[in-house]
Specification:
Blueprint (H helix, E strand, L loop, with lengths): L1 E9 L5 E3 L6 E12 L12 E6 L2 E7 H12 L4 E2 L7 E8 L9 E2 L6 E5 L8 E10 L7 E11 L3 E4 L4 E7 L4 E10 L2 E6 L1 H12 L8 E5 L14 E20 L2 H24 L20 H11 L9
Parallel strand pairs: 5-11
Antiparallel strand pairs: 1-10, 2-9, 3-7, 3-8, 3-10, 4-5, 4-9, 6-7, 11-17, 12-17, 13-16, 13-17, 14-15, 14-17
Length: 320
């Protein structure tokens, strides 16, 4: 895995934007916002909308708080430091391009667009800077995930989730009164049904966090780490009771078989090249060959034959 700074954006009064993404395989972005104001404490309310555009489509479009909750539940506690008056405050978040149970990376190719946008500070500040980092790893592009957040006002009764292959639904607690019951149907099959309290408890148990203070529930369709768990044509969220504003976020995945084949071949070639380099370095200073081939069942026959040819020169070493 590789981690590097992409850009540094001034969001004191203007929207931040960068397109300085190299051609690479991104498993996600890490953002950190630093802000301060003389004689005033800056809070998380300074954070606004975050958007990531990839190949001409939004793959992230959400208020910061929902991204924060999602990252907290599945990837660890984001940074939240409320600095005193006149001191810096810091707010961070990991924006994944994969489901926690389905490893993946999106591959930006030559000529493809990738843009990051963040709203200006939502509070009056003396300064605010957003640091954008890329998290990069050699993993094939098996799918492209999309994280979308939409505001609603309860009671609402029925919401059609207009996306195929939904893997995750994240619902924030209504501002005034919690829902008495929620149900999620996927392809007309009942996936989740329960009161707000029990679904929140279940969310926290699965996420292994130690507090219910997030006031959100996460309904996840991927539990065994299989790509086909996310496959669906339609989904519906049914609610009973509740009042006030709330946010509904969905994570869905899109497939491109051609891109998966291309990126898998590229990643595999990189791994083969690294293995070849290691084979060339296995001789010790006195000429004794030391060869270790981990998990030979996963290696190509070409590699195994090359290793066996080298090992044959030293009868005391095992063949693979």
């Amino acid at each position: 895995m590789r981690f590097r700074l992409i850009d540094e954006l001034d969001i004191t009064t203007l929207q931040g934007h960068t397109s300085k993404f190299d051609e690479d395989s991104y498993v996600g972005l890490q953002i950190l916002v630093r802000g301060k104001k003389t004689a005033t404490q800056i809070t998380k309310a300074m954070m606004g909308q975050v958007r990531v555009e990839f190949r001409g489509q939004d793959i992230v479009n959400s208020i910061y708080s929902q991204l924060y909750n999602y990252a907290h539940l599945l990837f660890g506690l984001p940074r939240e430091v409320n600095g005193a008056s006149g001191e810096y405050s810091y707010y961070g978040c990991f924006i994944p391009f994969y489901h926690a149970g389905l490893p993946n990376a999106i591959h930006k190719e030559v000529g493809e667009t990738m843009n990051f946008y963040i709203d200006p500070a939502q509070e009056s500040v003396d300064e605010a800077t957003c640091f954008v980092y890329g998290v990069i790893d050699d993993i094939p592009e098996l799918y492209v995930p999309t994280f979308l957040c939409i505001p609603y006002t309860a009671p609402i009764g029925k919401i059609m989730l207009d996306k195929a292959n939904i893997t995750t639904v994240l619902v924030s607690e209504p501002a005034t009164t919690i829902f008495t019951n929620l149900q999620l149907l996927v392809d007309n099959l009942l996936k989740y049904s329960g009161s707000w309290e029990i679904l929140e408890d279940f969310t926290n148990n699965l996420a292994r966090i130690e507090s219910t203070a997030l006031d959100v529930i996460l309904l996840d369709m991927v539990q065994k780490g299989e790509i086909n768990e996310g496959l669906s044509d339609s989904a519906v969220l049914l609610s009973t009771g509740g009042s006030g504003a709330f946010y509904l976020s969905t994570v869905s995945i899109d497939f491109n078989a051609e891109k998966t084949i291309q990126t898998s071949g590229r990643v595999y070639a990189k791994r083969e090249a690294k293995l070849e380099q290691r084979i060339k370095k296995v001789q010790t200073s006195d000429g004794v060959l030391v060869s270790v081939l981990r998990r030979p069942e996963n290696k190509s026959q070409v590699i195994k034959d090359r290793v066996n040819d080298e090992v044959a020169k030293f009868p005391t070493l095992p063949n693979f």
